[in-house]
């Protein structure tokens, strides 16, 4: 059993928090919106999977929260909120608390390590699919797996405990010794799936049925893989494309997080995904036309909100 703080009660934070609590861990969900906190306090966390709904009574707190007793603090906020959310909790986590990022995009680990200088930082990546249906209510829209890793030997024990508790909670997890590659591959997959789904407003499975969109995804993955290799990340674009097809099939009923943001007229993570990839590509004088185009299209949608 672990004491766990989860900063960010969105779809993934709520899914992980509810299932970890049901598995016997002591979880505190943290969110900046008092309405979300109030709803979780009153109704708990509700997780739908198929026709079944499970509930968990989870402690909820408005940010910033006192997480000084937490063994590990998950950060599941949007990538553009990482520095602000971390800054709000600087001095509010225990001196030995591990900090775990389960987020999209590049740069989150560096930001967390910069804020929590004396705390060990763990890297996480998940392909679990979650769709927020309301405060504290989430649809587990597709099963995946989670990888946890670190370069710091002193947190190997905590990494193993987190992997154990996630797996025990029904969120299959394993340790990884090469999280840089894992995070880059997840970023490239998201850069291909998320903006296309957001622009077309299609569920993941619907994208598979439309040949021009599948081909566009494949080309975005090729472009991203070339950028990764320029950064000395050994990425196989063909293998990543096969993985993308598997993910779309496994999460056919899911709406990507970026599509959920667009539907609710919220800021997206496009700059932390395609925008950042384009910056790396420009540094190496590589072709970045697709990443730039997708970034511009999604930014245009954001700017069109009434």
Tell me what portion of residues adopts beta-strand conformation. Answer: 15-25%
Major sheet summary line = 8 strands, mixed
Mean pLDDT equals 94
Q: What would you call the quaternary organization?
A: single chain
Name of the CATH class of the largest domain? Alpha Beta
Radius of gyration: 18 Å
Q: List unreliable stretches of 5+ residues.
A: none
Count structural domains: 2
Short key terms for the protein model shown above:
single chain; 306 residues; alpha/beta; Rossmann fold; N-(1-d-carboxylethyl)-l-norvaline Dehydrogenase, domain 2; eight-stranded mixed β-sheet; four-stranded mixed β-sheet; 48% helix; 20% strand; globular
Provide a concise account of the structure shown.
The protein has 306 residues and is α/β, with parallel strands linked by helices.
Tell me what you see in this structure.
The chain has about 300 residues and is of the alpha/beta class. It has two domains: about 5-175, 3-Layer(aba) Sandwich (Rossmann fold), CATH 3.40.50; about 180-305, N-(1-d-carboxylethyl)-l-norvaline Dehydrogenase, domain 2. The chain is built from twelve helices and twelve strands. It has an eight-stranded mixed β-sheet, with helices on both faces. Strands 4-3-10-9 form a four-stranded mixed β-sheet. Helix 6 packs across helix 12 and helix 11 runs antiparallel to helix 12. It is globular, with a radius of gyration of 18 Å.
């Amino acid at each position: 059993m672990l004491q766990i703080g989860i900063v960010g009660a969105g779809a993934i934070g709520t899914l992980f928090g509810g299932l970890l609590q049901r598995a016997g861990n002591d979880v505190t969900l943290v969110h900046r919106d008092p309405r979300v906190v109030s709803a979780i306090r009153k109704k708990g966390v509700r997780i739908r999977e198929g026709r079944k709904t499970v509930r968990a009574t989870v402690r909820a707190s408005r940010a910033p929260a006192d997480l000084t007793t937490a063994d590990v603090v998950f950060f599941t906020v949007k990538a553009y909120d990482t520095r602000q959310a971390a800054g709000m909790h600087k001095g509010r986590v225990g001196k030995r608390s591990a900090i775990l990022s389960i987020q999209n995009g590049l740069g989150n680990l560096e930001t967390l390590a910069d804020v929590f200088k004396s705390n060990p930082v763990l890297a996480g990546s998940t392909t679990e699919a979650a769709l927020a249906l309301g405060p504290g209510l989430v649809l587990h829209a597709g099963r995946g797996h989670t990888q946890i890793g670190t370069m710091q030997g002193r947190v190997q024990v905590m990494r193993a405990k987190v992997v154990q508790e996630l797996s025990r909670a029904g969120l299959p997890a394993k340790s990884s010794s090469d999280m840089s590659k894992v995070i880059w591959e997840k970023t490239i997959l998201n850069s291909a799936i998320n903006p296309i789904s957001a622009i077309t407003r299609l569920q993941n499975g619907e994208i598979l049925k439309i040949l021009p969109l599948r081909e566009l995804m494949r080309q975005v993955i090729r472009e991203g893989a070339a950028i990764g290799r320029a950064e000395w990340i050994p990425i196989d674009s063909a293998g990543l494309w096969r993985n993308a097809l598997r993910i779309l099939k496994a999460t056919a009923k899911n709406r990507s997080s970026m599509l959920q943001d667009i539907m609710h007229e919220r800021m997206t993570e496009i700059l932390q995904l395609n925008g950042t990839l384009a910056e790396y590509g420009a540094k190496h004088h590589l072709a970045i036309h697709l990443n730039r185009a997708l970034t511009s299209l999604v930014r245009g949608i954001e700017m069109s909100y009434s």
